[in-house]
Amino acid sequence: MKAGVRALGVAESYRESTSHLAGTVVRASRVVDGFVFDTCTVGGRDATETICAMVDRLDREDVRYLLVAGIAPAWFNVLDLHAIQGRTDLPTISVTFESSPGLERAIREAFDDPDAVAARLDTYRAQPDRRPVTVNGETVYVRAVGIDDDAAADVVRGFTPEGGRPEPLRVARLAARGLVDAE
């Protein structure tokens, strides 16, 4: 991957009812090249729209990929990767860092309202399956829309200088935590 290729990584940190999302533009050469911030509702259904609005507000034609940390930030505010990719026109890659049996049971247990459960499960089930990807001797789990699985794995590897967390997501997570700590 060329050193100047840029990815936007979006990660979150939350306390109480608000989740702070941080977006970080990082070059493949590991140079941080921009930030964008927003909030979404913990336990809500607005994370997909919030991420799309962040990309719109950032307004960077040089960003080639969008990486998001996880599929259900802010306590099951499930992301619709297809909607994000369709609106932003960026290959969209969700990266998670732990093996799991999936979120269906956890979503059912987290909400009493059958409509809230059904809406989240519909969105969750519509997403591509997770695929394990080995990065620097660690395993991460990747879902990709707008890019094939092998190319998505190459992007994740290309933006991960060490460990298993891609640099755009690592820096975005630090920025989001900083916002929450500053409150």
Structure description:
By secondary structure, the chain is an alpha/beta fold. It has a single domain, classed as archaeoglobus fulgidus dsm 4304 superfamily (archaeoglobus fulgidus dsm 4304 fold, 2-Layer Sandwich). It is built from 7 helices and 7 strands. The protein has helices at 47-58, 73-76, 81-88, 104-110, 114-125, 149-158, 167-182; strands spanning 6-15, 18-27, 32-41, 63-69, 92-96, 131-135, 138-145. It has a 7-stranded mixed beta sheet with strand order 3-2-1-4-5-7-6, sandwiched between helices. Helix 1 packs parallel to helix 3 and helix 4 packs antiparallel against helix 5. The protein is globular, with a radius of gyration of 15 Å. The relative contact order is 0.20.
What gross morphology would you assign? globular
Radius of gyration: 15 Å
Largest sheet: 7 strands, mixed
Structural class: alpha/beta
The CATH topology is: archaeoglobus fulgidus dsm 4304 fold
The averaged pLDDT comes out at 97
**CATH first level:** Alpha Beta
Named at the architecture level, the CATH assignment is 2-Layer Sandwich
Q: How are strands sequenced across the largest beta sheet?
A: 3-2-1-4-5-7-6
Number of domains: 1
Order of SSEs, N→C?
EEEHEHHEHHEEHH
**What is the count of helical runs?**
7
How large a portion of the residues is in β-strands, by DSSP E? 25-35%
Q: Care to count the β-strands?
A: 7
Family: Belongs to the UPF0215 family.
Pfam families: Endo_dU
Protein name: UPF0215 protein GCM10009030_31940
Organism: Haloarcula pellucida
What secondary-structure arrangement, pairings included, does this model have?
Layout lengths: L5 E10 L2 E10 L4 E10 L5 H12 L4 E7 L3 H4 L4 H8 L3 E5 L7 H7 L3 H12 L5 E5 L2 E8 L3 H10 L8 H16 L1
Helix pairs in contact: 1-3, 4-5
